[in-house]
Each structure stands twice: as C-alpha cells, then as structure tokens.
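in:
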C-alpha cells in the first residue's frame, strides 16, 4: 500500500482458481485493511474471488467445495434481514466462516486459536499479537440457503465487505445489485 497513488476505494473482482495461490494479493489486501496512512478506512468491496481473498486476508481459511455453486438460481440469505436473494454464482471454493459463527455466539476469549484446511494456513484469532484477524471484528454477512456455506463477510465497524456471488450478473437475477450502490455511497463519502 505504501508508495501507491492515493485512491478512494478498492474493488476486488471475480476470477478463477485456488485462492490459496494468491498470497501476494492476500498480503496486499491485508496491508490495505491495516493501513493507518492515506488509505485508512477506505471502502473495500470484493466479489467471488474477491470475497475469498478478503476472507483470507481477514484470517479466515478457505476450502475447495465438493461440487461448487454454478448457475443463476443460488439462494442466499442476508444476515441483517433474513431475506433470501436469488443470486448468480460460478465458484468452487468457499470461505470457512465457522470461526465467525462461533465468535458471534460465544464470548470472546483471550487465547489464540487457529484453523488449517487443505487450502489455507490463515488464522482467525482473538489475539492481536498473532497478526491474524480478530474474530469479533468480522461477521458472516450472507449464507447459502441450500448448503449453509458462506456467501459473504463484512467488518463490523469498517467499510470492508465482500460477497461470493455475482451481484453484477446481467444474464441472471439482479436482486443484489444494491451492493454496488452501497459501495458507491461509501466511496462518495471518502471523495467528498
């Protein structure tokens, strides 16, 4: 992040592959989220692979799904409203948000814990000394109604959020197009 020309927001788009192979991108996003300089608390929005990179940068593991989610008819539940949106998806990996679920349902501990899957060595920790994310700083934002997998995460206090589905899908449903409006409003606040 140091040495970059200042910008108002960061958008991480979709793309193919295993998110565990994107260590450089993960590190750059982690640095962006921790930046105390010119980019401090600037909006961050990720979709699809962007969601996986944000999740890993936040310290959450990812895993390869058995079948993946494909098509224009994947139901996703929004955590704030419990409304179910029909989304367009094409991915074979998911963020493991189990640490977030357990952090939101139990009291915060002062001990550091970690989770490792076959595609991740990221940790979600309640100890700031380990360099990972604070579990209580992030929350599961969207969940797939079919299989319960994570479909999005967000920071509790900073303008960082991401979704696994494609809100921009032109050939499919546009139920979640409002996410771009949220990102644009947050960016306009920074630019003003």
């Amino acid at each position: 992040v140091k040495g970059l020309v200042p910008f108002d927001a960061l958008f991480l788009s979709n793309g193919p592959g295993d998110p565990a192979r994107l260590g450089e991108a993960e590190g750059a996003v982690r640095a962006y989220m921790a930046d105390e300089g010119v980019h401090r608390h600037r909006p961050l929005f990720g979709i699809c692979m962007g969601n996986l990179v944000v999740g890993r940068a936040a310290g959450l593991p990812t895993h390869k799904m058995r079948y993946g989610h494909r098509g224009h008819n994947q139901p996703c539940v929004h955590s704030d409203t419990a409304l179910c949106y029909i989304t367009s998806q094409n991915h074979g990996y998911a963020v493991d948000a189990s640490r977030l679920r357990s952090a939101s349902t139990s009291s915060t501990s002062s001990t550091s814990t970690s989770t490792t899957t076959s595609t991740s060595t990221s940790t979600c920790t309640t100890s700031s000394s380990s360099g990972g994310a604070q579990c209580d700083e992030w929350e599961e934002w969207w969940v797939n109604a079919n299989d319960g997998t994570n479909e999005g995460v967000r920071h509790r206090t900073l303008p960082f959020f991401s979704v696994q589905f494609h809100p921009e899908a032109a050939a499919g449903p546009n139920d979640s197009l409002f996410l771009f409006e949220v990102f644009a409003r947050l960016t306009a606040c920074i630019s003003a």
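note: The CA atoms of residues 16 and 34 lie 26 Å apart.
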